[in-house]
Specification:
- The chain is built from seven helices and 18 strands.
- The protein has about 350 residues and is of the alpha/beta class.
- A hairpin with a 2-residue loop joins strand 3 and strand 4.
- The termini are close together.
- The chain binds FE2/S2 (inorganic) cluster.
């Protein structure tokens, strides 16, 4: 199981009015367990006003840079993001979980691929990592980025993106899409929607020839682009996406696990094992999820989003059956192997066993 490590903050840097980047001094001894692929995220925890607050943020640094850096955009009433933007400074210590996540791009010098990415706002962070790694490691690959923001000032990492673009003019194309500022062409004014996605496909890439797509930003943009690409003939397996959260999911995208009338109120004997220690408790089929229930019984379990998008709470179901409310991150082969998102799981047999060490 991934555990939290006490890691010193190396640098906190203002990137825009409401966004800072935070880099970490990962000790040499921990570097192997902090290896990552571009697209993956760190889970951070801090005690803020007496309350432990945990969030996950995509790494914007690239593996070849031997650096661990995330970007934290301030959200209204966001406890962690406000703390990071207003209080956090170099030399402070945060609890940090090693990099995780299924939204990733494994680079190889042999690849000769075209990657296309749609990002909005702080959705740029995993893309920046991917772009830097692809440019460095895959000399024959191309990357096309469509990046949505309000205006030029709110473009996070603009200078860095421009620097990379100038260095790799023939392989990296960057198209800014601004909703509150008119640029030269109408197709880059507004939000990234179906019409724009179709226009970009016509002008800048052949949908079925692109090797893979990477989408990160608000759910509305993600699902619109995903559906448009599918409509343009792109195989769904080529479309990878990372949701910020499930809070803004459109209706119909956030089902709750179904329960048969006869199962209502039934109880399951649950055993959760973590770090070799087992916790036994009873849980109603239509009660809270396995993660929250086990946390309530004192288990020290990994989690971040609690919304089925980050994968931090993944564990193996070694006995019985569960259903999940949502799953935006487990791959089919992980499900096949018995992995579940415990923050979304509810028992459907009279006993279940869940192993976080497997
Ligand atoms: S905590 Fe993020 S998917 Fe469960």
């Amino acid at each position: 199981m991934s555990t939290m490590h006490q890691i010193k903050v190396k640098k906190v840097m203002k990137e825009t009015d409401d966004c800072v980047s935070v880099s970490f001094d990962v000790p040499k001894a921990l570097e192997p367990s902090f290896d990552y692929l571009p697209g993956q995220y760190l889970t951070l925890e801090s005690e803020i006003n007496g309350e432990k607050v945990r969030r996950s943020y995509s790494l914007c640094s690239a593996p070849h840079e031997k650096e661990w850096k995330v970007a934290v955009k301030q959200v209204p009433q966001g406890k962690f993001s406000t703390h990071a933007n207003e209080v956090l400074k170099s030399g402070d210590t945060l609890s940090v979980m090693p990099p995780m996540g299924n939204f990733k791009l494994a680079c190889s010098p042999d690849h000769s691929n075209h990657y296309v990415s749609f990002a909005a706002g702080s959705g740029i962070t995993p893309m920046l990592s991917m772009i830097k790694e692809v440019m460095e490691v895959e000399p024959n690959s191309q990357f096309t980025l469509f990046y949505g923001n309000r205006n030029t000032e709110s473009v996070i990492f603009r200078e860095e993106i421009e620097g990379i673009k100038n260095r790799y003019l023939n392989r990296l194309s960057v198209h800014y899409v601004l909703s509150k500022e008119r640029l030269m062409s109408e197709i880059f004014y507004g939000r990234i929607d179906e019409e724009k996605c179709r226009a970009y496909a016509k002008a800048f890439f052949n949908p079925t020839e692109v090797h893979s797509y990477y989408l990160c930003g608000p759910s509305q943009m993600i699902f619109t682009v995903r559906d448009t690409l599918k409509d343009l003939g792109v195989d769904e397996s080529k479309i990878n996406f990372e949701l910020f959260s499930t809070d803004d999911l459109p209706t119909g995208e956030k089902p709750i696990a179904e329960i048969a009338e006869v199962d209502r109120g039934k109880m399951s004997a649950v055993k959760v094992t973590v770090d070799g220690i087992s916790f036994d408790f009873d849980l109603a089929y239509d009660g809270e999820d396995v993660l929250d229930a086990a946390l309530g019984y004192g288990a020290d379990l990994p989690f971040a989003c609690k919304g089925g998008v980050c994968c931090t709470c993944k564990a193996k179901l070694t006995k019985g059956e569960v259903v999940m409310d949502v799953n935006y991150t487990l791959e089919p082969d992980e499900i096949e192997a018995g992995y579940i998102l415990t923050c979304q799981a509810h028992p459907r047999t009279e006993s279940i066993e869940v192993d976080f060490d497997a």
